[in-house]
């Protein structure tokens, strides 16, 4: 299994809307590195859902339910999407501030490449974030 983080601006598409929809395609990615990450995602992989700009926090976990296919928002074959469904809301959100202050997470793309909208996490990083979500702030 692989682990990922996707970023969404909550005013465009929030975790709460995702819960209501029960499934979404992760469209509109126009960065090659993020696109390559989408292509690596496998059915069953777990994905942290990060609210960017407003909140700046991880709020939940999604699951990949369909591997990459052509992005329906463009005719350009270079761009792909995956389908995600909600898996679990975090007990406590994990803020960017918490992530930046945790040495175990100093190398993740959210810290090193803040604009990357789809990034891969190591299992140990995923587990560290889960640990932070279980603890009180």
What layout of secondary structure does this protein have?
Elements: E1 3-8, H1 15-21, E2 24-25, H2 32-40, E3 46-51, E4 57-70, E5 80-95, H3 96-101, H4 109-112, E6 118-121, H5 123-134
Parallel strand pairs: 1-3
Antiparallel strand pairs: 1-6, 2-5, 3-4, 4-5
Structural description of this entry:
The chain has one domain: ph1033 like domains (ph1033 like fold, Roll), CATH 3.10.590. 28% of the residues lie in helices and 35% in strands. It contains 5 helices and 6 strands; from the N terminus they run βαβαβββααβα. It has a 6-stranded mixed β-sheet with strand order 2-5-4-3-1-6. The longest helix has 12 residues, at 123-134. The N and C termini lie far apart (29 Å).
Which architecture name does CATH use? Answer: Roll
Going by CATH, the homologous superfamily would be ph1033 like domains
Number of helices: 5
Secondary structure class reads alpha+beta
The average pLDDT is 96
* Widest β-sheet, arrangement of strands: 2-5-4-3-1-6
Biggest sheet descriptor: 6 strands, mixed
Give the SSE order as H and E letters: EHEHEEEHHEH
The portion of residues assigned to helices is 25-40%
Kindly report the CATH topology: ph1033 like fold
Give the total of beta strands.
Answer: 6
Instruction: Please compute the radius of gyration using only Cα atoms.
Output: 14 Å
Q: Calculate the terminal CA-CA distance, rounded to whole Å.
A: 29 Å
Short précis:
By secondary structure, the chain is an alpha+beta fold.
